[in-house]
Amino acid sequence: MTQAMKIAAGSVAVGIVVLGIKTLSWWLTGSVALLSDALESIVNVATALAALLALNIAQQPPDADHPFGHHKAEYFSAVLEGVLIVVAAILILREAWHAWNDPRIIEAPWLGLAINIVASVINAIWCTVLIRNGRRLNSPALEADGKHLLTDVVSSVGVTVGVTAAVLTGWAWLDPLLAALVAVNIIWSGWQVMRHSVGGLMDEAAPEGEVEQIRSLISANADGAVEAHDLRSRRAGSALFVEFHLVVPGEMTVDAAHDICDRIETALHAAFEKSRVTIHVEPEHKAKHDGIVVL
């Protein structure tokens, strides 16, 4: 099992524990805002399971039907997360509407809030782990799961403040109003997750910082070539695909040109662990004089 899959499995376990804690908090208080918090935790468990499944598919090696690998499975997981987040928001809005029309007194508020704070602390710690490792491992599924969990933490803080205000002021309408605000925040989070994932499915170029690093590595390791041009890159989950044309002197032997390609590929693989590099070698008269200058 890869490190990313171990973290994803941990998310499932954490999600189930937090769901149980938040459900207990709602059961003790009857607060619709705390119910909305618990409903979002159900989505957390579902999205953690989806991320685990996607990572299991993504790590499978290329085959005859998928010669470029299965890395994009992580993006499908992130899109599913976004959809589930929106569904959770709709359920919360429904509960908030019923509570607005029929306000209820919040029972045992302080014990319920204390229990809910424990769940929020667990989520805050775990979302930090997910986001940090998602970026380190270039895993869209883990990072999307972490960002979604961060939204849950923000929502929980708002719920805690709002329910406290409702109890202290006696304004029962604050409870459903807060639940509705949580739902809006969740919808925004779902949109952000889906927008990022669709970009990956549409083969967006690698981030600008990575592209500049790729250009520098090609330039520094292409001694003997004339130039490189038509550089293209894309991210597919943890994999980075790089393609470009390398112009060499017309009299250069195939062996010499191949040695240059090997140097460049070695440098790129060292910098980007799961990179896939394709180099098209061209003779000198194909130079465009507007690409990567060889140092």
From TrEMBL:
Provide the GO biological process annotations.
intracellular zinc ion homeostasis
Q: Which residues form the Cation efflux protein cytoplasmic domain?
A: 207-284
Under Gene Ontology molecular function, one entry of this record is: ferrous iron transmembrane transporter activity
Q: Where in the cell is it found?
A: Cell membrane
InterPro entries, per this entry?
Cation_efflux, Cation_efflux_CTD, Cation_efflux_CTD_sf, Cation_efflux_TM, Cation_efflux_TMD_sf, CDF_Transporter
One GO cellular component term of this record is: plasma membrane
Record's signal peptide: none
Q: Which residues form a coiled coil?
A: none
Spans traversing the lipid bilayer: 7-29, 41-58, 78-97, 109-129, 149-171
What is the recorded membrane topology of this protein? Multi-pass membrane protein
Q: Which UniProt keywords apply?
A: Cell membrane, Membrane, Transmembrane, Transmembrane helix, Transport
User: Pfam families given for it?
Assistant: Cation_efflux, ZT_dimer
Give the domain of life. Answer: Bacteria
Q: Which family does it belong to?
A: Belongs to the cation diffusion facilitator (CDF) transporter (TC 2.A.4) family.
NCBIfam families xref list:
CDF
Please give the name of this protein: Protein p34
